[in-house]
Amino acid sequence: MVMIRVPDVTRYRAPAVFLHWASALLIFCAFPVGLYMVGLRLSPWKLKLYSYHKWIGVTVFLLLLARIAWRVSHAPPPLPASVPAWERHLAGATHLVLYLLLLAIPLTGWLFSSAAGFQTVYLGIIPLPDLLPKDKMLADLLRFVHMFLNYSLAALVALHAAAALKHHFLDRDAVLARMVPGLKPRNPA
Amino acid sequence: MKVTSRVLALAALVAAAPAGAVEYGKVLPEKSEIRFVSRQMNVPVEGSFRKFDVQLSFDPAKPESGSTRITVHLAGIDAGSDEANAEARTKGWFDTPRFPTATFASTRVKPLGPNRYEVAGTLTIKGRSRDVVAPVSFRQDGANAVLEGSFVVKRLQFAIGEGPWSDVETVADDVQVRFRVTASPVK
Question: Which DSSP category does A167 fall into?
């Protein structure tokens, strides 16, 4: 007898789950590091944090490219039939904007760094090209845009997480379980 | 061997020297610059010294008798950002209230080949003096002489960046200094 492992189509596949949670973990590091480092007095510690922050950002960007490639080649598991249309639309729009922010935030960070006169050297090894010349006004603008997009991301991530928890604990459906290994939907009340 | 190479170098110099020796000595500040590149977390960061005086005496026909004295006013440093400029003036870095200037005084000029020389001298920063050697190239720009070169300063030899800043993993010890001095002939 031949054992065939049939993939569970009600859950996200392992690569998608890994990419999602790896990105989440990195963002949960980069965001507070970014908030903290900007207020520091110049020190070796500050220079290190700026570099780590940039390296994390580049990594999130690379993971995002992998996620987009995976997403366009693999349909996500369907939402439970109980999910109403307005929630499907809102979820779809939220996911799209989350993807756009995860593209735009590292890009604006990189451009801001260039405009401020500091090249980004990924992991201290791979120099990224400076797409912009050093320009203080442009740097100030890009810093604001980078910050604004980050607060937008924080708000959307809060909505995204709240929706997942609502589905799991209030609706008691399988939405969150699709993305959490080992998690089972709670029995309907 | 050594004699031959010297003769060759001399011949090259004679060939390169313009007809009728010209002595250059009037430095044009707006066409001169001193820049440096430090590495912070392996990121090259450009900076410059915006205020400096150069005394120069250089005759391509008699390079060995050339000499220079460069005085850099350290408060005019551009270290890449406003916060770095403020930090660079503090006690741990250049300590500009106590040591407002850095100086380079040449001790010897040696021809290396056509329009190329080696300038040795004493670099004094923050009260510490070290011998440095820099290759310098010469070219003519109209009636002016353009002298360019670079050398590496080991910042910790001059106590530039003390305390936590002495960590060379964060800010490398080697700082590349590049200079260009443009001088017109003295009458």
Answer: I
Where do we find the tokens 């026909």? B61
Q: Is the ipTM of this complex over 0.90?
A: no
- What is the value of pTM for the model shown? 0.86
**DSSP one-letter code for A171:** I
Q: Which of A37, A47, A126, A135 to probe the B interface (max B CBs under 10 A)?
A: A47
Three-state DSSP at B78 gives strand
Q: How many CB pairs (< 8 A) connect A and B?
A: 39
Dihedral sign of CA atoms A60, A62, A66, A69 in order:
positive
pLDDT along chain B (187 residues), means of 10: 57 52 90 96 96 94 94 95 94 97 97 95 97 96 95 97 96 97 91
Residues of B with CB under 8 A from a CB of A: 40-46, 80-81, 83-84, 86-87, 164-165, 167, 170-171
Residue A70 main-chain phi, psi, to 5 deg: -70, -45
For tokens 């080696």, what's the residue? B118
Tokens of A137: 């006004």
